[in-house]
Description:
Helices cover 31% and strands 20% of the residues. By secondary structure, it is an alpha+beta fold.
Amino acid sequence: MYKLTPPLVLLLVSLTGCGEEKSAPAPTASAAPTQKAAGSSAAEDEKTAPMEQKVLAEGDAAPAIEMTLQSGEKVKLAEQKGLVLVYFYPKDDTPGCTVEAQGLRDNYADLQKAGVKVYGVSMQDAASHKAFIEKHELPFDLVVDDGAVARAFDVPVKGEFASRHSFLLKDGKVVKAWRQVSPPEHAKDVLAAAGEA
């Protein structure tokens, strides 16, 4: 019998989809540049210094992208007015993702009262999204993503699974970004943020 080494165990855990795992940490800026070499010029430093990676954050403009829903309808995010929740989840009909979707479903009337439109985003196809919606009676649309929507929001993707991150937008700007999401509590967190937006 083979003994699993720690890196292999971590790899297997990361590929299990959408249980009660925590989201991958948000992308971070590059580490501080190394100490300047003796005799190097400022121009050389600019060429060799690592570039900082910009991560979508609160106050930023939302990505100007077009999203494809499970129905085939196209939605231009830039044209959405008021409050819009774009929440990313790893996989349809898996434990943590189902709990999160059901929480949003169960609080949907309150979300509507707060003026929040909801879009769930994952990397399964339209048929999978339709089945997930039907099985759990979800009152909101799901976005079919080939990875482009996740990249636009700086959401890490492992294989075919987007990390569990969420963004509350208001009139095209990010007013709240969750880079760590608790599936059972997320609907309540969104309602609280919507009340402050």
